[in-house]
Specification:
The chain is an alpha/beta fold. Helices cover 40% and strands 15% of the residues. An eight-stranded mixed β-sheet has the order 1-2-4-3-5-6-9-10, with helices on both faces. A two-stranded antiparallel sheet has the order 7-8. The radius of gyration is 20 Å and the shape is globular. The model has no long low-confidence stretch (mean pLDDT 91).
């Protein structure tokens, strides 16, 4: 096939919905907008079935980045390794959700989700896999509700917000009045959140199409590009009060690493986390810089803790070459080693 023919076929695919979230799932739990999806373990037979994995996604963006498209699905990989997988889809909040707090997400939603997964899998504990902001939520949950957690895997998780990463600069008090935003809009507008991430690399919004044309004859590249581009533009907001609290308490006041962050009546103390921890970071992450995630290693009370640093950027941990060749196999091996406490 000639290059012109590849480009013609590519142009015909633009504008069509790609094959996203391809892994078969079933509904395990539902509350308000939240859903928990279950994925059946398959593949390798093992003497002792691994503990189930519960993937805790970020509240920002849609859940299916970890089940993006065939061949680029972390969910499908784990299930193929014989590991039962569950994943949270936080859903799309509306005006009625604007007052939901950070404490409600951790102490209510996450608590109920973990209980539902344990009941469905017939186990007492799960391995939490937190992605980006979902990793921060997982840390908070584990510090406050450790009994149900056998292990904690973190992917590109912000922990220490005292650095000069661009999001940390933009959200400083002198530049960003989060109270005015939330008091005006309730839930932050989806377009605002999307444009914030777009402006981190503004020229990439143009040059990415040059990359696409240059790889028009590479079906795998095209399929991943179209699916990822669809996900980037499939924007979602998050509850306004949770957004306000996360920006204030984490980005502006850095309370998590100081042991000052309070959810309900209890302080979140990272040193109270004693479960095994696998902390996965990307060396060139411009959304959650490595230094932010790596700080956790000196803060948790876990005796068994491991840092896995790989090449690539933020999304390289979810769908990049490093994810497929290094991160996914390492996590699967780590999960198989976990036993209920």
């Amino acid at each position: 096939m000639t290059q012109l023919a590849h480009i013609t076929r590519l142009l015909a695919r633009l504008g069509k919905k790609p094959n996203i979230a391809p892994t078969p799932s079933r509904l395990v739990y539902q509350e308000n907008k939240l859903r928990v999806l279950g994925y059946a373990a398959a593949g390798k037979r093992q003497k002792q079935r691994p503990l189930p994995v519960l993937i805790v996604n970020s509240l920002v963006n849609k859940y299916y980045i970890l089940d993006l498209t065939p061949g680029k699905s972390f969910v499908a990989y784990l299930a193929g390794e014989g590991i039962p997988v569950y994943m949270i889809d936080w859903g799309v909040p509306d005006a009625g959700d604007a007052r939901l707090t950070l404490a409600y997400h951790v102490n209510h939603y996450l608590r109920r989700v973990v209980e539902a997964v344990c009941a469905d899998a017939g186990v007492e504990q799960v391995v939490l896999v937190g992605y980006c902001m979902g990793g921060t939520l997982s840390l908070m949950y584990t510090a406050l509700h450790p009994a149900r957690v056998a292990g904690l895997v973190l992917l590109a998780t912000p922990v220490d917000f005292a650095n000069d990463a661009i999001l940390n600069l933009w959200t400083r008090r002198e530049y960003f009045d989060v109270d005015k935003l939330v008091d005006t809009f309730g839930n932050p507008p989806e377009q605002l959140l999307q444009s914030t991430f777009m402006m981190m690399k503004p020229t990439k919004n143009i040059t990415k199409y040059v990359d696409l044309l240059q790889h028009a004859d590479n079906d795998d590249f095209v399929e991943t590009f179209l699916a990822f581009d669809y996900w980037v533009n499939d924007v979602v907001s998050l509850p306004g009060e949770t957004f306000r609290q996360f920006v204030k308490w984490c980005y502006q006041e850095n309370q998590l690493v100081q042991g000052k962050l309070r959810l309900g009546r209890r302080l979140v103390k990272l040193e109270q986390i004693t479960v095994p921890v696998l902390n996965v970071v990307a060396n060139h992450d411009d959304v959650v810089p490595r230094v932010s995630s790596e700080a956790l290693m000196g803060l948790v009370g876990s005796r068994e803790k491991e840092l896995l640093a790989v090449n690539g950027g933020h999304h390289g941990l979810s769908i990049g070459k490093s994810a497929v060749e290094v991160v996914w196999p390492q996590i699967a091996m780590w999960v198989r080693e976990r036993r209920a406490g």
